[in-house]
């Protein structure tokens, strides 16, 4: 059955290819007739506009357009390498016919985004025509994947390509290299001579005065999903530096099982593949820290916490917030449930095989739920997003991923955090829930989950950071400066979006535009993270630039997982059809409903209709 599905998918690949890639085909044909050499071989001393003598790296001015690579020459001029940019000329500014046609025929990302998030009747039809729908999903996977370099090119300690970027897996990757050192201004040559004062920036642009609710009914269950999910690949090694990570290249469920083999061993029961659990108040929970070997958790030394409130989890941070603890508990229960299902069909399998196979199934469930429930809500697309790895088989898609430093920064979504959580009659403030799982044991896990479902998240925008999160925000801005991120407009262009032309164009709000203009002086000098959040709200949960940068990193991270590759993605990897079907039918609702004690209701990433 699976075999026939994937061969169908493949056939449709070929047929549909002519439909969706028709325009690209015309462009390609035209380019074959007219293409000129994309490489410019004369360097550029006499480039108009470039000053004759500079006392700084001329690449600070970013003279090379269209992703051409600037290289400094000993005589204080530069050369642009236009290879592969479809442009030529001193500054890679002259398009080949291919590029010219693409630019003029391809709709801009904002238009496409508006199309996919509106016209629900149109998408309702498309979603029901399997061959068209599969064709579009294939296009989504491939076009998004194409925007992420594979293998990775840059890391944060060099502003040029090095082998370290590939071989030293302690580095986060970089989509754009750091700004060269010793430039006239922090982002090159544009803007003020110094970054704006970080405290002034936070006070003027970021701090919440009054809670701004998320306009798409997003709830706290979504906020904690985001945090729980992303911590499996954002493992910044803060002791060594924000450019380094302790983690692997993507979705490895290390947030559930542990990052190192020693942690994973410590959390296993050794029986029928299951993880260690204990029963508290008649419910199954993860074990106490004192009862497991070799696990260390991030409990702060200055806060006294009794031993029967300290838990051992796959991620050392996850016992410090009740929402993360809730997700951890649900996933441990789900793993053990999957082990029971596998044991029913494979009573002869040993503990090791049941555990390893259950872990593969859990990765599959995580990816399925992330695409079909989480990203679906996040994007607000009317196109129904589906997890169909076979669509990438036999294409140019690369099953390799590296987490990018910019992705980590982009995912700092603290405005989602609401001021309070109302759990069965009690209001908990943000600090009431820090370092504590008490609300879960006081009210029961089910009540806590219902509270997360019923509470609105905050809007991902400016002036919506809760004041107690000030230190987290300050750190992300300071780290962005340490890593010498290029500005928001450079990233817009890297991800094929037009640069913002003015502060008004960025924010859509005259007052905010004026504040930012005073702080930065030039739209091309606006810092990456600041620009991401200051962008005017759009149809998705995040503003548009975040969708169009986070999208490629997410799609790549999810679909490049080994389980999606042709040799893994088949029933036998997952213990047969039964295991494969657990993945194919997973949903956020099932995950909770199968693992709550007293049944579930309204499990979704939105507050139920009618919630104030
Ligand atoms: C710029 O570079 C070229 C080639 O490397 C060199 O011949 C020329 O003298 C340089 N111009 C200046 C102004 O340094
Ligand atoms: C990776 O790079 C970091 C930072 O330069 C360095 O400390 C570490 O030793 C490198 N690791 C390897 C395996 O080379
Ligand atoms: C609070 O919890 C108790 C016991 O679980 C339950 O009977 C009651 O309905 C809950 N109240 C609310 C408002 O959820």
Quick synopsis:
The chain has 612 residues and is mainly alpha-helical.
How would the blueprint of this fold be written?
Blueprint: H1 2-20, H2 22-34, E1 69-72, E2 78-81, E3 87-88, E4 94-95, H3 97-105, H4 109-116, H5 120-126, H6 130-146, H7 164-167, H8 198-206, H9 220-230, H10 254-257, H11 261-266, E5 278-280, E6 283-285, H12 322-345, H13 351-379, H14 405-410, E7 420-423, E8 426-429, H15 438-443, H16 445-454, H17 470-482, H18 488-494, H19 503-507, H20 510-520, H21 528-534, H22 544-559, H23 577-584, H24 588-593
Antiparallel strand pairs: 1-2, 3-4, 5-6, 7-8
The chain binds 2-acetamido-2-deoxy-beta-D-glucopyranose (3 copies).
One 2-acetamido-2-deoxy-beta-D-glucopyranose binds at residues 43, 45, 52, 73, 75-77.
What can you see in these coordinates?
The chain is mostly helical. Helix 12 packs across helix 13. The radius of gyration is 25 Å and the shape is globular. It starts with a helix and ends in a 19-residue tail after the last helix. The N terminus is likely disordered. The chain binds 2-acetamido-2-deoxy-beta-D-glucopyranose (3 copies). One 2-acetamido-2-deoxy-beta-D-glucopyranose (NAG) binds next to loops.
Helix content: 40-55%
List low-confidence stretches: 1-48
Bound molecules: 2-acetamido-2-deoxy-beta-D-glucopyranose
Average pLDDT works out at: 91
In percent terms, what proportion of residues is strand? under 5%
The strand line-up of the biggest sheet is 1-2
Category from helices, strands and their pairing: mainly alpha
Number of helices in the DSSP assignment: 24
Largest sheet: 2 strands, antiparallel
Radius of gyration: 25 Å
Total strand segments: 8
What best-fitting shape do the alpha-carbon axes yield?
globular
* N-C termini distance: 47 Å
């Amino acid at each position: 059955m699976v075999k026939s599905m994937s061969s169908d998918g493949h056939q449709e690949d070929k047929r549909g290819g002519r439909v969706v890639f028709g325009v690209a085909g015309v462009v390609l044909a035209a380019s074959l007739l007219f293409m000129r050499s994309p490489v410019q071989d004369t360097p550029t001393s006499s480039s108009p506009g470039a000053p004759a003598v500079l006392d700084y790296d001329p690449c600070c001015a970013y003279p090379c357009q269209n992703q051409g690579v600037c290289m400094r020459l000993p005589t204080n001029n530069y050369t642009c390498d236009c290879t592969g940019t479809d442009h030529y000329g001193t500054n890679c500014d002259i398009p080949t016919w291919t590029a010219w046609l693409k630019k003029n025929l391809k709709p801009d990302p904002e238009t496409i985004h508006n199309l996919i998030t509106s016209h629900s009747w149109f998408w309702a039809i498309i979603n029901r025509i399997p061959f068209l729908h599969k064709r579009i999903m294939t296009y989504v996977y491939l076009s998004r994947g194409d925007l992420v370099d594979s293998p990775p090119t840059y890391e944060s300690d060099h502003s040029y390509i090095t082998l370290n970027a590939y071989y030293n897996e302690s580095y986060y990757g970089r989509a754009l290299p750091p700004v060269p050192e010793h430039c006239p201004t922090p982002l090159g040559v544009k803007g003020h001579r110094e970054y704006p004062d970080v405290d002034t920036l936070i006070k003027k642009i970021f701090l919440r005065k009054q809670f701004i609710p998320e306009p798409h009914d997003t709830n706290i269950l979504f906020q904690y999903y985001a945090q729980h999910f992303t911590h499996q690949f954002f493992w910044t090694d803060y002791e060594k530096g924000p450019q380094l990570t302790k983690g692997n290249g993507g979705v490895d469920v290390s947030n559930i099982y542990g990052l190192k083999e020693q942690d994973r061993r410590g959390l296993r029961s050794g029986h029928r593949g299951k993880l260690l659990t204990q029963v508290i108040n008649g419910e199954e929970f993860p074990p106490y820290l004192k009862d497991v070997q070799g696990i260390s958790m991030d409990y702060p030394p200055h806060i006294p916490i009794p031993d029967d409130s300290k838990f051992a989890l796959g991620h050392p941070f996850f016992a410090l917030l009740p929402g993360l603890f809730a997700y951890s508990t649900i996933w441990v229960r789900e793993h053990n449930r999957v082990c029971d299902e596998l044991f029913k069909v494979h009573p002869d399998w040993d503990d090791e095989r049941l555990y390893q196979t259950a872990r593969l199934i859990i990765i599959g469930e995580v990816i399925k739920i992330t695409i079909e429930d989480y990203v679906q809500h996040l994007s607000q697309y009317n196109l129904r997003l589906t997890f169909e790895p076979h669509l990438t088989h036999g294409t140019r898609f690369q099953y390799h991923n590296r987490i990018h430093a910019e992705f980590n920064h982009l995912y700092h979504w603290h405005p989602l955090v609401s001021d309070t959580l109302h759990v069965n009659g009690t209001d908990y403030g943000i600090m009431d829930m820090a370092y504590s799982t008490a609300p879960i044991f006081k009210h029961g896990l089910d009540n806590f989950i219902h509270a997360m479902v019923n509470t609105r998240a905050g809007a991902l925008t400016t002036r919506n950071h809760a004041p107690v999160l000030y230190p987290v925000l300050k750190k992300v801005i300071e780290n962005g400066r340490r890593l010498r991120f290029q500005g928001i407009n450079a990233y817009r262009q890297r991800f094929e979006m037009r640069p913002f032309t003015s502060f008004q164009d960025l924010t859509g709000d005259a007052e905010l535009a004026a504040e930012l203009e005073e702080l930065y002086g030039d739209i091309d000098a606006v810092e990456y993270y600041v620009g991401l959040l200051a962008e005017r709200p759009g149809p998705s949960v995040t503003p548009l630039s975040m969708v169009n940068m986070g999208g490629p990193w997410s799609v790549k991270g999810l679909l490049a997982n080994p389980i999606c590759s042709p040799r893994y993605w088949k029933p036998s990897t997952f213990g047969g059809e039964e295991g494969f079907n657990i993945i194919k039918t997973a949903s956020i609702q099932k995950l909770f409903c199968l693992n709550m004690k007293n049944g579930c209701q309204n499990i979704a990433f939105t507050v139920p209709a009618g919630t104030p």
